[in-house]
């Protein structure tokens, strides 16, 4: 008959369950970070059209561009882009399929700057930006697409609710899966626990080997989940390089460390409460 070691229980099955549950949490955590960053990029990169007065000289346009760039809310990564009225007319003709310049006999459009501003999608903030840009000398009008911003705001709110709901579901499911795996594994140790209790061992002495082994298993499970996450993330980025703007190596490293810590904490907690339950049971209830 194989001798049972205190704190030992079916290792492979439990480790697989822990790793799978932690991988599920880690993967969704990385997804949540990417989704949040995407929402921020969509909401912060609002483009406004700064329409210029007619007959501005090239020097006046350059001076205006410098004034626009000095505002703190204007993106420093992307300078204001000059759009001549001729270019704007070509774009509109290509889009609509109608040559309105020939029909009208002149080009009614004006030169403009496409300016990307780093503010939220709140109407009050955008209106304040519009007022400040519009107050500059040489600016005829400032326009931006309000309907698109309303759609972004609605989508961001929906995405936020979905991410929160799924986070709770995934986390709860993973915790239940780990807890049930630990409880089933410790079931085989219930008589050994009772034997130690009958010979006078304290609760701390009985729990200690199980807690140590649980912490090690949780850390190993978190490490396996982290390795799988890193492989999946690397494969996804290799297939879609644009993902580097949404998830970084720091994000992956943070999630991996969190998975190891969370694995140890969850497993130790499950072991602690399961052992406490068996210590309180009567002998007849063990069968």
Structure description:
With 287 residues, this protein is an alpha+beta fold. The protein has two domains: 164 residues, no CATH class; 102 residues, 2-Layer Sandwich (Alpha-Beta Plaits). It is 68% helix and 8% strand. The chain is built from nine helices and four strands; from the N terminus they run H-E-H-E-H-H-E-H-E-H-H-H-H. It has a four-stranded antiparallel sheet. The protein is rod-shaped.
Short description:
Helices cover 68% and strands 8% of the residues.
Characteristic key phrases:
8% strand; single chain; Alpha-Beta Plaits; 68% helix; four-stranded antiparallel sheet; 287 residues; alpha+beta; disordered N terminus
Structural class: alpha+beta
Roughly how many Å is the radius of gyration?
31 Å
The average pLDDT score comes to 78
What is the number of independent domains?
Answer: 2
Strand order of the largest sheet: 2-3-1-4
So how many helices?
9
Distance between the termini: 20 Å
Largest pleated sheet: 4 strands, antiparallel
Please tell me what the overall shape is: rod-shaped
Share in β-strands: 5-15%
What is the count of β-strands? 4
The low-confidence runs, each spanning 5 or more residues with pLDDT under 50, are 1-7
- SSE arrangement, N to C: HEHEHHEHEHHHH
Topology:
Layout: H1 11-44, E1 45-52, H2 58-69, E2 81-83, H3 85-96, H4 100-104, E3 112-118, H5 123-134, E4 139-143, H6 146-187, H7 190-198, H8 203-239, H9 249-280
Helix pairs in contact: 1-6, 1-8, 1-9, 6-9, 8-9
